[in-house]
Amino acid sequence: xxxxxxxxxVAGKAPGRKVYEDEHTLAFLDLYPISRGHCLVIPKKHVRxxxxxxxxxxxxxxxxxxxxxxxxxxxHAFDCEYVTMLIRGTRVxxxxxLIIPTIKGEENLLDRTLNLHHFCQTHLKPQFSETELDAxxxxxxxxxx
Length: 145
Fold this sequence. Notes:
By secondary structure, this protein is α+β, with helices and mostly antiparallel strands. The chain is built from four helices and five strands, in the order αβββαββαα.
């Protein structure tokens, strides 16, 4: 896709600070990092949503393997407490994994946001009853993959 900035980075038509590349995937520093070492991992083939990847595409396995490799590289490059991984495809319509390190002694917006989410999740009334949760679990179990 010519208008997709990630596809342009893959094609070498837009700059990107590459940190990892293999036959199927590319990883580079985020242009607007949440923390030092914040990377994006993308499949080289344009796919908008992770759920749009078909098993026959041979993308999901190599993509997740590259995410694992980059997350480990980031963890070893910095003094990380942990690395958060989020799959997206919204702001840029090309599936991407955000690799966001939490570095000891440094704060970042994602951790603050997730801490607020956790506080709300544990202090607000549960949204679903036990019966509703059982029905939700059953619906997911029996859905087509």
